[in-house]
Amino acid sequence: MSILNGIRVLDCSIAMAGPFAAQRLGDMGADVIKVEPTSGEWQRHASAGGATGNKINVSFLSLNRNKRSLAVDLKAPEGKAILIELVRNADIFLQNYRPGVAERLGVDYATLSAINPRLIYVSMSGYGEDGPYRMYPGQDLLLQGMSGAMLSAGSADAPPSPAGQYLVDAVTAYSAFEGALAALFHRERTGEGQLVQVNMLDAITTIQMQELSVFTVGNKPQARSAEAHAHSYIRAPYGVFQTSDGYITLAMAKLATLGAVLKDEFLAGLDEERDGWTLRDAIFATVKAKLVGATSAEWLERFRAVDIWSGPVYGYADLVEDPQIKHNQTFVEYDHPTEGHVKTPGFPIRFSRTPSAITRGAPLVGEHSRELLAEAGFDAETIEQLIESGVVRQHA
């Protein structure tokens, strides 16, 4: 039995952040019902990387395992009535509608909590439920640019560089996941449900706790160096360096030790806590010139022998074959009825007594509509009428 066994989640979210948060709950055993339009959730039709799949594209597949699909038209009175019935016995309701949409649909917190006072209602937005930016599009890259983080790395004359992940979506998903779990714990103590609000702007801002505190409390300006330093608030050497056959990372080495390995008197005579800041560009340039003289493997062997923090720069092909990744069983593999054999990232949290598991792959549109309506108490005749009218879609 998994740790959230018996918890029912209504996932009315789209795109990445909301579905990812709901998937984490499903991985831990919650019964996650994906409530989506009869045409299917938006992510089903927007394939990242052009990976369309057979019947389910890889974007949707990756964010919606361990869920059942109920395809229903919430704009129809009969469709809204179905959702209300599900709310009566739900534990968590998760949505990332634009501000105002939940109220127009009649599925806002005030309405649903009156029906089920124990309900934990997780509302996710781009910039907040109100305020001057409330209607702006909450898209990952836009929030990355707004976060300030793009100007913490790289060289001063280089353009701002975005992260290589959908970073804001992921951080927001984990914030919502954390909020839902905390609210569940509160409910176990008190019996009370509550509203949990998460927005992307606050999520990406608050994760920069250390950097922004250095700026606001320490009064240190966010100034990029002439060289491509990896973070404006870390002393040199700190960044990605080219070798004779690739790239490695190097972080905060003791300069005397580094100078000895590189056979460089300039580095060997420096004090890292003083010169690591004031001579950051000169240190970076010196190290950069030295490291092109040997292979990545050679440098990593030399550096690790004297405890200089260093590591490889991987592509995905390298990552999936890494010995530690394999040892950790970071990726999980399973068979999907339409997409075949699937290998995908697994579970970042491990429980000794209540392990996460994949009990079902991402569902087809409305794959579970009939069984979910039956569980909610609708009789067989009503269910067939709803399907025939188009209010509900049941996948063939």
TrEMBL record:
Q: Which UniProt keywords apply?
A: Transferase
Annotated protein name in UniProt: Racemase
Query: TM spans, by residue?
Result: none
List the molecular function annotations (GO) for this entry.
CoA-transferase activity
